[in-house]
Batch of 4 targets.
Target 1
Amino acid sequence: MDKLTAFDAFVQSAETGSFVAAGRKLGLSASAVGKAVVRLEQRLDVRLFHRNTRNMTLTEEGRLFLERCRRIFEEVEAAEAELARSNRTPRGRLRISLPLVGMLLTPVMAKFMRAWPEVQLDLDFSDRLVDVVEEGFDAVIRTGQPSDSRLMSRNVGRFKLNIVASPDYLARCGVPETPDDLAQHQCLHQRSPSTGKIRPWPFARGERQGRIILPERMSATAVDPLIELAIQGMGIACLPPFAVRSEIADGRLVTILDEWVEETDQFNVLWPASRQFTPKLRAFIDFMAEHLRPQ
């Protein structure tokens, strides 16, 4: 096993947290990965992992070495990209982080895979604040305004949230005509998994903006249960338009208070400014910009 392969075995073990998972990614047995890491430790005369029967974690030396290995692979990938630039064909592994709501973008991801079959997508769905540079992501998709100065960004889609309810619920409970009317209704809220806070509904009301206190019938950290409960007539929800497009189209949900919802949210793709802008990353960003535009 050559040095780069041994380095790759170490990186995959560090990122997945086990030799078994690393072996699956590399097409090797867990034993082969473990032996490669042990030989690497022997050659470097340093312990890279704290290991026990339940888990393994990086030592301080292991964390430093992981950062160096990632830089090595970035340089190798950049060199490959330069050699491939003559035909400009996007290819290779693309590691992308998306928010949990990004699971609803899987149809777009499927279209990208069909358009660029030589690009292997590695998607990580999480609402936590990932460190794009340190964790080795090629790019992340996030909502809201970007704030990390180490990252380049591109707005790939803007959208206005929808306030929705089922026809059955509105027939039973009445149609609210202003945001104040929601005080008499059942509201289904999304809660941030990272902060635990209820996400506010984007009503713009001049001086009184943000002062509406909405009842909390229930809350969830994911969008899917809010959609289903709204369809079942359990209350009113505030959801991204792409999450409920088909439900609105087939009449299972209807939008309300549209004229009061004035805040526009946006999707951004962010990527490390220090890294090579590869054909596969350019293809991904351009594709997202084309397919996440408002419909």
Note: Residues 256 and 274 are 45 Å apart (CA to CA).
Target 2
Amino acid sequence: MNARIKWLRNQLSSLKLDGIIVSNPVNIRYLTGLNVEDSIFIIAPKENTLITDGRYIEYVNRSLTISDEIVACNIKNLSKYDFECMFVMGENIGIEEKFITYETYKTYLQTYQVDLSETEGIIENQRIVKDEEEIECIKKACEITDKAFKYISQNIRKGMTEKQIAFEIEKFMLENGADGRAFDTIVASGRNSAMPHATPTDRKIVHGDIIQLDMGCKYNGYASDMSRVVFVGEIDEEYKKAYDFVLAQQRTMANTLKDGANIKQAVKDRETEYKLKGYEVMHSFGHGVGLLVHEAPALRSQVDCILKENSVITIEPGVYVPNSFGIRIEDTYHVTKNGCVALTNSTKNYLEIRN
């Protein structure tokens, strides 16, 4: 049996659940390897059933093998009796409460005639720790991202727009093996960089600009995430001061976080440094990375969580001066017993664009 499904069955047994209805498409992909939307994956007492529709059924049938021990069904071919039979011998069934509506909840009650119990992110928590294959996919995504940054840093020109730069980054990643972008690429120049999640605009790059780049791609479904800053012409001293501070915070946190480290304490220490320098903390100091570019654990002082070996996280401190400029440095890291190993390795020296 698929190792992940076997693990989940063991977890359900310990929770005294006879099965689970998986609704989150990311969790379905994690358990089955299948990239399907608007589907449900049912782990029932007798078998594992993926219920999808005509858009995906041929893809699913081609992908599954006998060893997967998964039955694929087109929803239009299932009768009410078929649904009722799925949980024969089952009484208490888990649901992903964050991924269904109340209407769907009522439909499940009427359809399966069982008690439904919330599972409180059981699969998401398992996804925090990556296996060897997952880490290799993330490494590959990071390699493509590093290459994309090297390419764009050599090809930015004054007069280009933020949109043009974002397009070139995404085009390069696709042409160099990526499935696609992991998120909307951020290119924010001048005072636009003061917005952490700025959207690329038609603003043209001019001398004296600071350019915030945030990019990532997916490889075999797994994401990378990296942020860098480039300067157009001479670097303003205020920019240098903020840049050096942000880089120091990232390095300190990377040296602190490892298997067994407490996220809450590590972030609180950084927040103290921000207060001493008079900077405001605008967002989390990082997040987990996997099938989603933002997943557990979040690096916030409100999150009392112990890091585990083979987690993959980002560390992304930033400083933002309203209506003036922003600087964020971000890398994807593999958490080991002895520390964090950077998977994105683009230069973090001052990078000046002279063209």
Note: The domain at 132-353 is CATH 3.90.230.10 (Creatine Amidinohydrolase).
Target 3
Amino acid sequence: MARPLDKLPTLAAAALVAIVSATAANGAQPQTVEIYSAGSLRGVVGNLTNEAATALGIEVKSTFGGSGSLRERIENGEKPDLFMSADVGSPRKLQAEGRTVVPVIAFARNRMCVVSPRAAGLTAANLIDHMLEKGVRVKTSTPIADPSGDYAWAIFDRIEQLRPGSGAILKGKAQALMSVKATPATPTQSAAAALFASHQIDMTLTYCSGFPALQKEVPDLTSFPVPPQLDPHPVYGMAVLSDKPGVLRLALLLMSERGQAIIAKNGLLAMGGAQDAHPHE
């Protein structure tokens, strides 16, 4: 029987402590740790990199992308030391394939938010009606390649339960926009900001943790968490793929009070934190 997710960090951290204790005696020198990470964790990984350098003497090399795509790269032979995914499904698949050195660790939670121009007047009360309006363009990430897309599809499935026939309409809207791209106004402008700025989309379903940065690029945007009955409760999982002491220490750092504070600082929810928190209110 699967163990509750809230207990996994303690259990896995205990396993990591045992392995680190066993390997620390080997006199390992400072190491470089390669991380493959979900794009929504850029801030977390950046802070973790700084903390690891000063506290542990570890250099972090990071690669970002959609968690599903990164998992496929690992399955095809690429060998990072640590995989930080925006879901637990991809790390569990690697564990089932015998690629991990400890059980999968659930290390953070997120929320899904609805983002739209303030002028649209979108609210939790009129959300479903507005999404279903003809001509309203609803953008999501691509399912399977990116868990954000999977979570959006889960929201559509919950809407389907409330209004039969709606799920297919919403998935059709999202699929129609998956290949739509806008030319960023500046080299640093994000893809989502470019789409809103060029008026190619009307709303998106995305992680709440990413909204503050998006709003800085497009100030007239607003957001709110999806209503509780639609919330898929995103959980982030970590796969430890190497038993190098530096990797294990880095994983322990992430699960420590300091690591969980880094997670909260970047708008995600620390494990065991309040589930109704809205990071940008």
Note: The chain has eleven helices and ten strands.
Target 4
Amino acid sequence: MKILREIGVISRALDSIANIEFKECNLAKGQYLYLVRIVEQPGMIQEQLADLIKVDKTTASRAIKKLAAKGLIEQRTDTANKKIKKLYPTTIGIAVNEFILKEHRYSEKIATKGLSAEEVEVLAYLLTKVRKNIDKDWHFVKKGQTRIYE
């Protein structure tokens, strides 16, 4: 349980810092996560975004509406299927994302301070493996399945 506790503490601390620092960008709690992913993958749909961030569709929908109202993203109707709305960053959203990336780079530099380049690479590799393991369970539970604890 020590590993998950450490990951949780790190995650909450960085999220808290980000939420405070991103207020000047007119971003409410957690909205930066959505904007970054939309900039990384312009044209994605809401379901893809929800899956990337690991939130339900309703939570993603609320965040998307708020970001669109602030002029940071826009929803465009798909030409082939009018029911599909694709998400794109606006010029303002791209500019805000640059500030977010500066914060992310700084936080990563602080987080890995004192680690060798090899240790950083191993840490990234191991965390990716952990994320993939958790991702499988997240999908399993989101589909209504129940995990069996051993």
Note: Helices lie at 2-21, 31-40, 46-53, 57-69, 91-111, 117-142.
